[in-house]
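INPUT
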Amino acid sequence: MIADGPTKTYCHRRLNFLTSKFYLHEMLNEMAELKELKSVPHRDFYNVRKVDTHIHAAACMSQKHLLTFIQETYKTDSDRVVLEKDGQKLTLKQVFHCLNKDPYDLTVDSLDVHAGRHTFHRFDKFNSKYNPVGASELREIFLKTDNYMNGEYFASIIKEVAHDLEESKYQHAEPRVSIYGRSPEEWDSLSKWFINHKVYSPNMRWIIQVPRIYDIFKEKKLVPNFSKMLENIFLPLFEATVNPQKHKHLNVFLQYVSGFDSVDDESKHSDHMFSFRSPKPEDWTTDDNPPYSYYIFHMYANIMVLNNLRKERGLSTFQFRPHCGEAGSITHLVLLLTSDNISHGLNLKKSPVLQYLYYLAQVPIAMSPLSNNSLFLEYSKNPLREFLHKGLCVSLSTDDPMQFHYTKEPLMEEYAIAAQLWKLSTCDVCEIARNSVLQSGLSHQDKCHFLGVNYLKDGPEGNDIRRSNVAQIRMAYRHDTLCNELSFIADAVKSDAMNSQYD
Amino acid sequence: MIADGPTKTYCHRRLNFLTSKFYLHEMLNEMAELKELKSVPHRDFYNVRKVDTHIHAAACMSQKHLLTFIQETYKTDSDRVVLEKDGQKLTLKQVFHCLNKDPYDLTVDSLDVHAGRHTFHRFDKFNSKYNPVGASELREIFLKTDNYMNGEYFASIIKEVAHDLEESKYQHAEPRVSIYGRSPEEWDSLSKWFINHKVYSPNMRWIIQVPRIYDIFKEKKLVPNFSKMLENIFLPLFEATVNPQKHKHLNVFLQYVSGFDSVDDESKHSDHMFSFRSPKPEDWTTDDNPPYSYYIFHMYANIMVLNNLRKERGLSTFQFRPHCGEAGSITHLVLLLTSDNISHGLNLKKSPVLQYLYYLAQVPIAMSPLSNNSLFLEYSKNPLREFLHKGLCVSLSTDDPMQFHYTKEPLMEEYAIAAQLWKLSTCDVCEIARNSVLQSGLSHQDKCHFLGVNYLKDGPEGNDIRRSNVAQIRMAYRHDTLCNELSFIADAVKSDAMNSQYD
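OUTPUT
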């Protein structure tokens, strides 16, 4: 369907229409929207809720923050054993001695975790930026949950980030932590880390990211086939759902987990074309990595079954919010069929049909233009403004403050740059912020509190301007426009049915 | 000269050459520069000194900061008399009552001091943004030095900004305050404000801005001719220089004043063409405003004479750092003849001869791309990166955080956006920061401390990489390139002289 000529023309024209219609709306109603906002007491862009809908836990602190944390830790903890390597136990002092570095002299330059010109279209270089000073030892010590110290340092630094969010009061984040599917013990270890170090924060929800690295585990003989990887990821969750008493830690942790992500470089090519003839997971025994769509389908299938089971038992369910459309084939974006929302969505630029479908279905998109600017697409070419104007449900997120941002307030930096460069109005940025809360994994209670009790209703009725600072004029415009597009299609289907009746 | 065809071609080609040469330098030396920076202990972009070289005191706080300050002040001071209007004394409560506003309900939206789409090419609208809630009363109460409370609130909020700078440790600012030339008492009032409220901060130096609004004073019959305005501005300074004991307050204040600025909308047209036939200031008695060049020349002449007098007596001297080349005729930029450095310089884009002269003479330019983006030139078209690459001495400054910035760290926001959008390297941003210290009015001792004791020397010798974090490779490149251009011209002049000798 996405390659069909007439469909492409139709969608392209509808999208152009949506753009022009918004400009007209803007010209006619901009001042009226602003007037509405000015009359809202005590609410402005600074105190509307904003959720960082896409942020990786291992890079959720700024480079300066990580540097200071390492230096402070060294001051008090240099004689502590922090790493076991080749059977040898090493203290923090010994680790730095091996690296031939004095923590006091470390700088953000020598830490070298910031992306730049050199990472553009080089996901491999970008990935290695996760290693402070280029040393995987420091990543292991400071940015992992399951190391020699059971991830104590990583928990501490995340709690500092959480503290900053709580101080800001109006900012929330959904950090993504990894489950690899290497062994079935990962869940236990992760939930113990969460509970023992009390990583809970009212301003944070958690997302589980699964890297698409079956080929690495297979090569190391950690798993015999793809099915085993899926089992390592999902079986513990089924067990915890069926027998919560036996898996107390995991059950507590799962209350704060809002969904799953699938991560890796989308531009990697795969020779296999996923179809109903593809091998079943237990038969995927080659050393090759399965393609993107194969991963996504099997994660989706497992999450669906798991959610149904959990719903039956009155337990929380999980969203599926994969990275999608950051690079690679546009067919990745077909997974709007399987996803609750996606991260990036840049490639929607290239497919009018998919873009229009994302609009019609209002599939939320967590966009990170500063991340894209360092990796895949220059800021000025980012489609975020265009998507927002057309009415796609976009939010702003940081992806990796450690690699991309400069100030102490990465999410505000992201909003500031978008607002400055694209000359967004206050109503625009507040609409993005509202979208971020809507598409986040925050609880129903939180959403009622942050957006108003009717937030699930469509159009202006669902908007409490005193909380969202989004003009009702804007809400009405969005609602009318969407209803119009939908009824257009409904009418076409109806008349088509009528015609065939008389055929 | 700036209109001469062959000269234009020559300069244009030299500038293109400089651009290409820098790209070559970058390609060949980028990694080597980075390696140099990585090996510098304890110094990175975050702890090199940065001076905000162009910032207006009345807008040096963020919009959110001003809002909070007004609300906090109202909580404790609502019954205080703060304004005298039409002979009536009004308390803060009464003022807000007249405006029909409750300070608790105020938001940044209703405060309405932020620039946006509506201020582009509308300097008039921009100017009115200085009035919180559109009310000149609030500007009078909170953002003036000589009001009913002798500027107590304005002093308090500036001290809060200074406190943030001191906390940051590595950030400095040179706020600009106004002397209008309306009456000779302005200096006394300003210096009393400075001393009585203890506005001094080690992280701040002061610049005096003179608005070009003779026509308004003339119309109100406050001054009979232009000479009287100049006298009001400069005579008190001559008197304080000749007789310091009689003007103690002013003399103390002048120790912290580093220079003068001339401000207003440069795009305003004037019918008068300044030349040696122009009327003398005492004969400028029409109601028309003199043109830009007339103002600049007469300010320059007065500052020169004043500086010579002060130098003789061992007193501090003043720089002349006017707004120039933000808009209007390119001929404004000819004032590199009269200025120590300029603010904006955007129009150098349009004149290769002037741009090349600014390069050769290394006239410092304080640029504010975010301000330009809201007023005169889109960010993507800003020439800052191009100027930097060619080797012009540019710094980054905020102009008006209240109107343009979003985060709590406006200067860092300015650097962050430039670094992100233009993919500047660490060496690039540190070079800009070093330029900002060099071109600032900080004392010689401060500059020795921040840049190294040899900072006045040319080339790598003058650079202490442990303080500036600018690679010596970069310094050598800049120095060689400039010497090369200069010797080119020297050679041409020499051979020209030789030729005429044999003519």
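end of record. Residues 172 and 437 of chain B are 9 Å apart (CA to CA).
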